[in-house]
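User: Hey, my collaborator sent me this sequence without any context and asked if I could get a structure. I don't really work with proteins. Can you help?
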Amino acid sequence: MDDYSDWIGRSETRHDMATAAPLVGLGALLDHDPAAPAIVPPLGHWLYFLPDARQSAIGDDGHPRRNDGGLLPPVPLPRRMWAGGRVEFLAPIAVAAALTRVTTIAAIRAKRGASGDLLFVTLQHEIAADGIPAIREEQDLVYRAPATAASPPLAEPAPASVPEPADAVRRVTPDPVLLFRYSALTFNAHRIHYDRDYARDVEGYPGLVVHGPLIATLLIDHALREMPGLTPTRFSFRAEAPLIDGMPFDLCLAREGSGARLWARDAHGRPTMRAEVAN
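Assistant: No problem. I've predicted the 3D structure and written it out in C-alpha cell form, which is a compact way to encode the shape of the chain:
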C-alpha cells in the first residue's frame, strides 16, 4: 500500500450556519414532535458542513472521486466507512450561529485484516460557533479492499448466548425510508444506503447498510429520552459490525454514574456498535 504519511497534518477550513431546518428534519426522523430548537442538539452538528462535490466529480460508489484534489488522500481501496469517533461538547451552539470548522488529518495507519488491506484515517475537527469553540471531534474512517466472490463474509460479532444486561432498551426496525431520509439530511450519496443491488453485488453486504452516524445519533437520542437531566460533555462510539435494513435491532443503555454506556445489538443479541456518553 502507498505511504500516505505526508498527508498527516493537512487541513482545510469550512464555514456554515446553524440553520433550523435540518434540525427540524432530524427531530422528525427521530420521531419527536416537529419544532425548531433554539440550540443544536448533541450530534446535530453532523447536519452542517455537508459534502458539496459537483455531480461530475462523484465516483461509482457515490462518494467524491479520490483524485479530486480534496483533503483526503487518494486511497485506492474502494470501500469507505465511518468506523467511529470521539466528540467533546465544549459550548452550546445556538441556532443561526455562524460556524467555522477546521479539519486536520491527525493520523493514517495501514493494517491487514481478515478481509484484506485496511487503511484508517483519523480526522480532527475543531468547530467554533460565533467565534467560540463549541465542538472538538475525532472521526475515524476506514478504507477496505473490494469485495470479491472469494472474499470471506463480513465479520460478525461472536454470538451472544445471554445478551448484556441493560437498564433501558428500545427496538428499531430500519427500513429504506429511514435510511433515505437520513441520507437526504446529511447529503450522503454513498450507494450502500439506498441502492440494494450495489450494496449486495459490489460491496458485498446482504442488504442496505444502516449509516454508522445514524446509529450513533439514535443511541444518544435514546440516552436523552431515558435520562432527562443528561447534558452530554463527551460522546464516543465504535462500530463493530454492520446493521442491515429490515432486520430489527435494539438500542441499549446501562447507567454509569451520571453518564451511560450505550450499544446497539442485533436481533441475535450481538453488539454491533458501542458508545459512551458523559454528563
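In plain terms: Residues 5-278 form a domain with the Thiol Ester Dehydrase; Chain A fold (CATH 3.10.129.10). You can pass these C-alpha cells on to your collaborator as they are.
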